[in-house]
Design goal:
Layout (H helix, E strand, L loop, with lengths): L1 H57 L10 H14 L2 E5 L5 E4 L14 H7 L4 E7 L4 E12 L2 E11 H52 L14 H49 L6 H33 L8 E4 H11 L1 H7 L3 E4 L5 E4 L1 H17 L7 E7 L5 E7 L21 H6 L6 H11 L3 E7 L3 E8 L4
Parallel strand pairs: 7-9
Antiparallel strand pairs: 1-2, 1-5, 3-4, 4-5, 6-8, 9-10, 10-12, 11-12
Helix pairs in contact: 1-4, 4-5, 5-6, 6-11, 7-9, 9-11
The chain binds adenosine-5'-diphosphate.
The site of adenosine-5'-diphosphate has 22 residues, from helix 9 and helix 11.
């Protein structure tokens, strides 16, 4: 259907262009052929006139009269030999000899344009209707000389019907040639179209399979060129869609699982309370506290998910970044964590040059640093120190480092840390109130700034998480 439409879009235009160009070439060729043929005929007539002129001049009667039977007879003989009408005209316009008529019966020819030209010493050419013969003729007249003086004119003529017949043959040949070329071009056009449209048709079928959700489809186009590149691009798109689909499915499964655990607990404890546990005030209080903790947990997970989706939404349009003093952002982050660090009895040391600035969105960057400090607190023993440092990087840009002397992370986990809901030690993360989304948020914030996150860690010694921000440019 779509292929038909492409054909009907291209093909008529192609045929029209071909037909128009052939018509233009044909018209031009016919015109040139006609002009060439007429010029050739005129030249031919002139040559014949000059050829017979000497011989006819010798036959002119010495008295200058028009009565010249020998001359007239010679004209008639020459016509039979050359298939050309020959007329001899005297200076006063009287006809002394003619190959087709009796001279005495012919009108005075002094007024004929070609004769006038010849009588005044030039070659005359004219095409017109002959009254003598009753048909259209081409005439050429040249001066006739006898004894070194002008003695009249010799005129040769052929009927235009001869010329037209010859021209019709030429036109027919041009027309037939053009028709043959047009047919060839139309056929070649169809062949080329087929070759172009077949790979497109294959790609269309493949794209429709993709659109129906068959993401395992792979398009193959044998020959190279645009169609093959289009197929490759579609294959890459399908590959990407497949990956996104997997990520999406995993994400939905993870979110459901993460939300289900606290909800199941809440439901269980509430039911226990309803079943009578509420009567014992001590139990009631304990269970309600557990319910409250799980509700907090749900709240944090949903808060983190919303934050992530907000950062991702902004993925298409760039963040509004401003040049801000890094030290201010780091201090705000440390202060925001004061309650947690104080409760656990860990000391936080801030080290950042006053004049160092970064291009950043302050609330987002602060959120990322808060998450890192939060983790450092969660995965360290009470009393161990945490260092928050800001420094310029070699080659431009700046880095924020959060360093702890906590439990550390085994190397095999490091590559997966930025994944949503990825945790090294599930139980410990849960117990510490982690959502498994903290580092994913840090990673996304760094990327939204055009930067990245790196980590160094040793089990039992501690970890350093760094946010690298590119230099302003
Ligand atoms: P969570 O909410 O579980 O802390 P994160 O995304 O912040 O989730 O971190 C993912 C996992 O990375 C954590 O569960 C923890 O196992 C590990 N992790 C993160 N930061 C540290 C750290 N400073 N020290 C040790 N382990 C860490």
């Amino acid at each position: 259907m779509a292929a038909r439409r492409l054909l009907w879009q291209i093909y008529p235009a192609y045929l029209l262009i071909t037909a128009l160009s052939l018509a233009a070439v044909g018209w031009y060729a016919s015109r040139e052929a006609r002009e060439f043929y007429l010029a050739q005929t005129a030249a031919d007539l002139e040559a014949r006139a000059r050829l017979v002129e000497g011989r006819l001049g010798a036959l002119l009667p010495p008295d200058g009269g028009a009565d010249a039977p020998a001359l007239d007879a010679e004209c008639k003989r020459l016509d039979r030999a050359a298939a050309t009408r020959i007329t001899v005209i005297l200076p006063d316009g009287r006809v002394a000899g003619d190959s087709e008529e009796r001279p005495a019966a012919m009108a005075n020819h002094a007024d004929r344009p070609e004769v006038r030209a010849a009588l005044s010493g030039r070659t005359g050419l004219a095409t017109r209707h002959s009254e003598t013969l009753g048909e259209d003729m081409m005439y050429v007249a040249v001066p006739l000389e006898a004894g070194g003086r002008g003695a009249g004119a010799v005129r040769t003529a052929v009927p235009l019907t001869h010329i037209n017949r010859a021209l019709r043959v030429i036109y027919l040949q041009i027309g037939l040639g053009g028709l043959a070329v047009a047919l060839l071009a139309a056929g070649a056009g169809l062949v080329v179209y087929r070759r172009m449209s077949r790979p497109l048709e294959e790609i269309r079928l493949g794209a429709e399979r993709l659109a129906r959700g068959d993401l395992a489809t792979r398009l193959t186009v044998s020959d190279s060129g645009e169609a093959a590149r289009l197929a490759e691009a579609l294959n890459r798109m399908a590959e990407r869609l497949r990956r996104l689909e997997t990520v999406r499915q995993e994400f939905v499964a993870n979110v459901s699982h993460e939300l289900k655990t606290p909800i199941t607990s809440i439901k269980g404890f509430v039911e226990t309370l309803l079943d009578g546990a509420a009567e014992n005030p001590e139990d009631a209080r304990k269970f309600l506290e557990i319910v409250a903790r799980h509700a907090d947990r749900l709240n944090s997970i949903i808060g983190d998910l919303l934050l992530l989706s907000r950062i991702e939404e902004g993925g298409d349009r760039p963040l509004e970044l401003g040049e801000v003093p890094l030290r201010d952002v780091l201090r705000a982050a440390v202060e925001a964590c004061a309650a947690k660090t104080g409760a656990k009895g860990v000391a936080v040391y801030l080290d950042c040059p006053n004049e160092l600035t970064v291009r950043a969105s302050p609330p987002l960057l602060e959120q990322a640093v808060v998450n890192l400090i939060d983790n450092a607190v969660k995965y360290s023993e009470p009393g161990s120190p945490i260092h928050v440092e800001g420094c310029a990087e070699v080659g431009g840009g700046a880095a924020v480092a959060v360093r702890d002397r906590g439990q550390g992370i085994a190397p095999e986990h490091l590559p997966r840390l930025g994944e949503r809901f990825y945790r090294v030690d599930k139980a410990r993360s849960r117990q510490a109130g982690g959502t498994g989304l903290g580092l994913a948020i840090v990673k996304h914030i760094a990327q939204a700034h055009g930067g990245r996150v790196s980590v160094e860690s040793r089990v039992g010694e501690g970890s350093v998480f760094r946010i690298h921000l590119p230099g302003g440019g």
